Amino acid sequence: MSNLVGVMQGRLLAKYHGRYQAHPVGYWQQEFEVAKKIGLDCIEFILDFNDFEKNPLLSIAGVNEIKSLSKKTGVIVKTICADYFMESPLHSEILSVAEGSQLILTRLLKNATLLGVTDIVIPCVDQSSLDNQAAMNRFVDKLTPLVQIAEKSGINLSLETDLAPKKFSELLDRFNSDNVTVNYDIGNSAALGYDPVEELNAYGNKISDIHIKDRALGGGSVTLGEGNANFEFFFNKLKEHNYNGPFIMQAYRDDEGTEIFKQQLDWIKPYLA
């Protein structure tokens, strides 16, 4: 496998406060050793809205602790999933919320540079969906000044949206920057009923981070291979785009995490080879 293969933070540990996806405050350090044992290259860190000031990504001491664990285990942090912006969207109609989020992203970019991060994923899905033209205009307006910082830092702002391929492509064009890229989530696209060929034709060359997941059409997360995602179809098409970013396992999880993760990693490995 030439691409990095990693895990969405928390998937190899017991659930944090019963939440499906969250930064595990107080025990996040343990995941590095588990990831090393499984043979993973990286962990995609999460920046949550809840308790964000406790997140190591936002302090120099925290960044140094991450670096130290990476050095010890060989498991690195190259990507960040900024779930913070689902609760506090950059395109919020409340100006103080949008401006507060700009400040958080500025801080995150600064510290991500110290870690050698390549991608910060900005989710515009569910409650932070870009569901109308006005929201899209606000998003472009608020993200544009940060794109310049990202360009100087060599970091991609990788957008995860639920937009149809043509609309998503039009949004990317508005930034006119190589550093505004696509986070492609295999499961979310399957749940929305999108055609991966159409998606990859529209913006395949802009994908810089891939989330591996399976979902039923219009439904929730299921074990890899049991939903509507056509992995064969997707990976064959992906070959046309010389994708060199990471594959991040964001697959179905139970309360415990590790065993179900290993089963799904074994299932997907032939596609990643």
Radius of gyration, whole Å:
17 Å
Q: In which order are the strands of the major sheet placed?
A: 1-2-3-4-5-6-7-10
CATH class term: Alpha Beta
What is the succession of H and E elements? EHEHEHHEHEHEHHEEEHEH
CATH topology: TIM Barrel
Strand content: 15-25%
Per DSSP, the total helix count is: 10
- Alpha-carbon distance between the termini? 5 Å
Shape: globular
Flag low-confidence runs.
none
Compact overview of the structure:
The chain has helices spanning 30-38, 60-73, 84-87, 95-115, 133-153, 165-175, 186-192, 196-203, 231-238, 258-272, and strands at residues 5-8, 42-46, 79-81, 119-124, 156-161, 180-185, 207-212, 214-215, 221-222, 247-249. With 273 residues, it is an alpha/beta fold.
Describe the structure.
The protein has helices spanning 30-38, 60-73, 84-87, 95-115, 133-153, 165-175, 186-192, 196-203, 231-238, 258-272; strands at 5-8, 42-46, 79-81, 119-124, 156-161, 180-185, 207-212, 214-215, 221-222, 247-249. By secondary structure, the chain is of the alpha/beta class. The chain has one domain (5-266): Alpha-Beta Barrel (TIM Barrel). The protein has an eight-stranded parallel β-barrel with strand order 1-2-3-4-5-6-7-10, surrounded by five helices. A two-stranded antiparallel sheet has the order 8-9. Helix 4 runs parallel beside helix 5 (133-153). It starts with a strand and ends with a helix. The relative contact order is 0.13.
